[in-house]
Design brief:
The chain is an alpha/beta fold. The chain contains 13 helices and twelve strands. It has a ten-stranded mixed beta sheet with strand order 3-4-5-2-1-6-11-8-12-7, with helices on both faces. A two-stranded antiparallel sheet has the order 9-10. Strand 9 and strand 10 form a beta hairpin. It is globular, with a radius of gyration of 23 Å.
């Protein structure tokens, strides 16, 4: 074994000579870019907070655009009634809830029929967006006073369920959320505000996604914000506010937002129809949809805006087991790769403005390639120390730039989040978040690197994507730890 390791010494020395400076520069650049987006996010949050009160009051007027809230559901019998009741009670002057039952094999439809006294009607949905699955039925409340529409169809996946909802929607704006998501009462008002401010140019907005694990939820509402009891979802809490609240807010400020989460996005229905709805062949359908909207409108030389609104929050349950989280991260990175590759023709093209010149190069260099270079560092540094090719001070410098800087970035993001929203009232929670930002870099980050590479490799090999099952522990009525 010793002889084998010694035989590696010349190759390791050569690799270090060639790659040390570029890799260190890469880590400095990627973490510095995070700091820049955090600074941009702080500016954007401050600007939106100044407009906030007047904006929300404006939303109550008759000119407020109507919203169809689309809820794709498959085997959601446990929480579908509570979820729909909460959505119907959202603060908005004109919104409807459209539930699309994607061939559930449990009592999802039966629960809805019983809770809302639904009756089947002979309504034919328009085929504005192509859907292959057969429609089974359309249901509405018997009294006609509740703006609820339930559509049932053969099982064909979430993407076609959303497309069916687009066909069924009757309002000019379409909100797409998950059936198990918990929206704050004024979330729909806030995420729709940019459409009132700029009705001719605004085509899509997105809101913040936060982990509901550890929060107390009553009747479909988060009544107390807390932290999960275990470290895996605690670390994801840190990830969520860094990626959603600050990362995407910063990109929105820069005019280069190219990703709106499928768990909470708002779109103009006519634009969704123009681009053909969601692509059922894409594993990253939310990312792919926004990229298709950018390309379509840029190719037609139309003036438009895509904006992220940090204040409205949709709460969702983060994975609490390594198995479920592995499937999630593999799927995310595979979707990232396949979408970037599909839209590679937009890269560095003048026609596509900041999307082509700033956002896409960033995603290629710092989102797609990051796990590959980090995996290289994880392997080469211990090997170099073992062979006594590098000294301890150099190794510490490497770790400081790769991980210490990342911890500092996370702390900066936490400071902005607390300054803007202050959702965690207990000092204990803040202390746990700080500790989670450190522990994220010890084991957790290395695992996610490996999982992301697995997703990338599976795509390159052409392996069929298996979505897997998101096993949920539930949060209704749960207490904070």
């Amino acid at each position: 074994m010793t002889d084998f390791l010694e035989s590696l010494r010349p190759g390791v020395v050569w690799l270090l000579e060639v790659t040390t400076v570029p890799v260190l520069v890469y880590f400095v650049l990627i973490n510095s870019s995070y700091l820049v987006t955090i600074a941009l996010a702080a500016l954007e949050i401050r600007a939106q907070r100044r407009r906030d009160e007047a904006g929300v009051q404006t939303m109550g007027r008759s000119l407020t655009p109507g919203v169809s809230v689309l809820v794709p559901a498959h085997n959601e019998e446990a929480g579908i009634v509570t979820s729909v009741k909460a959505l119907l009670s959202l603060r908005h002057p004109r919104h409807e809830v459209v539930v699309v039952d994607d061939g559930s094999t449990d009592q999802t439809l039966a629960r809805l029929v019983e809770a809302f006294d639904l009756v089947q009607i002979p309504r034919v949905l328009p085929q504005d967006v192509h859907v292959e699955a057969a429609l089974r039925g359309v249901y509405v409340p018997r009294d006609g006073r509740t703006r609820l529409l339930v559509v049932t169809k053969d099982n064909s996946g979430k993407t076609e369920a959303v497309n069916t909802g687009i066909n069924a929607a009757t309002e000019p704006l379409v909100a797409v959320i998950d059936a198990d998501s918990v929206l704050e009462p004024d979330a729909l008002l806030r995420v729709a505000q940019p459409f009132s401010d700029d009705p001719t140019r605004m085509v899509a907005t997105g809101g913040t996604i936060r982990a509901v694990n550890g929060c107390r939820v009553v009747s479909g509402r988060v009544v107390k914000v807390g932290l999960p009891r275990t470290w895996l979802p605690r670390i994801q809490v840190v990830e969520y506010f860094r990626a959603f609240l600050l990362g995407r807010t910063g990109w929105s400020r820069l005019g280069g937002l190219i990703l709106i989460s499928g768990a909470f996005g708002l779109f103009r229905r006519d634009i969704l129809v123009e681009v053909g709805g969601l692509d059922h062949t894409s594993i990253g359908e939310d990312f792919e949809l926004v990229m298709r909207i950018h390309r379509h409108l840029r190719d037609e030389d139309r003036d438009y805006r895509v904006q992220f609104v940090p204040e409205p929050v949709s709460w969702t349950e983060a994975p609490s087991t390594f198995r479920v989280m592995r499937n999630q991260r593999r799927r995310w990175h595979r979707g990232l790769w396949e979408t970037l590759w599909a839209y590679r023709g937009m890269l560095l093209r003048k026609r596509y403005g900041r999307v082509g010149w700033v956002a896409l190069p960033y995603y290629w260099l710092f989102e797609l390639v990051a796990p590959l270079l980090e995996a290289y560092g994880i392997v080469i540094l211990p090997l170099a120390l073992w062979l006594d090719v590098v000294d301890v001070p150099f190794a510490l410098l490497f770790l400081l730039l790769a991980y210490g800087y990342a911890v500092f970035v996370t702390l900066a993001a936490l400071a902005v989040e607390e300054w803007a929203f202050h959702r965690h009232e207990r000092w204990r929670d803040l202390g746990l978040i700080l500790l989670s930002s450190v522990l994220e870099n010890v084991g957790y980050r290395q695992l996610t690197v490996w999982w992301r590479l697995e997703g990338w490799w599976a795509s390159l090999r052409g392996r069929k994507q298996v979505w897997g099952v998101m096993t949920r522990t539930g949060f209704e009525g749960g207490d904070t730890p």
